[in-house]
Amino acid sequence: LLRSSKTFKPKKNIPEGSHQYELLKHAEATLGSGNLRMAVMLPEGEDLNEWVAVNTVDFFNQINMLYGTITNFCTEESCPVMSKPIKCSAPKYIDYLMTWVQDQLDDETLFPSKIGVPFPKNFMSVAKTILKRLFRVYAHIYHQHFDPVIQLQEEAHLNTSFKHFIFFVQEFNLIDRRELSPKDMFLKCLGRPTYEVQSTDIGLSRAQNNIRITTQGTYWCML
Ligand SMILES: [Zn+2]
């Protein structure tokens, strides 16, 4: 599935043979069948925290790889400002963000990998913050680096990954609807009011499977 092996940060491994590894394999198998709605659902009898943990690690790994393929294009010069409230370049901000996520995933008290070790009470709120921040990286790639993504033929991979991510956060209400509106998110995060969002149903309608993002009349992606 993944053509590139270059990642931005080291890949976060889920140990083979563990229950979480089985959950990951289950998700991959369902994804392979092409049914993303099914792939995000909590498997019967499984713990929601553990399911969210496994998928959060997986999304981190996916974004890590996707951003890893375009880091050469994301520079102080190309992306001097990430967004209005954050006064630093995108590469600096994304580096900080991904390191922060990595630290959370590596924290055994937050993301216990051993069977029988309970998840902390604040697990869901930490997971929500992680997913909200990872969304910003998708948004940045779509907005600023979609051309190299096409050139590198990573477009289908990016779209599938993004769609999977959106379906997952929708399924468990993990990101506030307002945060997920591509219009608001992209305008707020990226500061370039060039988006015309044809369907703002992202995060709104579970029956709506199509997400279209256009900019200045240019067809960007249909997931
Ligand atoms: Zn950039």
Automatic annotation (TrEMBL):
<dbReference type="InterPro" id="IPR005301">
    <property type="entry name" value="MOB_kinase_act_fam"/>
</dbReference>
<keyword id="KW-0862">Zinc</keyword>
<dbReference type="Pfam" id="PF03637">
    <property type="entry name" value="Mob1_phocein"/>
</dbReference>
<keyword id="KW-0479">Metal-binding</keyword>
<feature type="binding site">
    <location>
        <position position="145"/>
    </location>
    <ligand>
        <name>Zn(2+)</name>
    </ligand>
</feature>
<dbReference type="InterPro" id="IPR036703">
    <property type="entry name" value="MOB_kinase_act_sf"/>
</dbReference>
<feature type="binding site">
    <location>
        <position position="74"/>
    </location>
    <ligand>
        <name>Zn(2+)</name>
    </ligand>
</feature>
<protein>
    <recommendedName>
        <fullName>MOB kinase activator 1B</fullName>
    </recommendedName>
</protein>
<feature type="binding site">
    <location>
        <position position="140"/>
    </location>
    <ligand>
        <name>Zn(2+)</name>
    </ligand>
</feature>
<feature type="binding site">
    <location>
        <position position="79"/>
    </location>
    <ligand>
        <name>Zn(2+)</name>
    </ligand>
</feature>
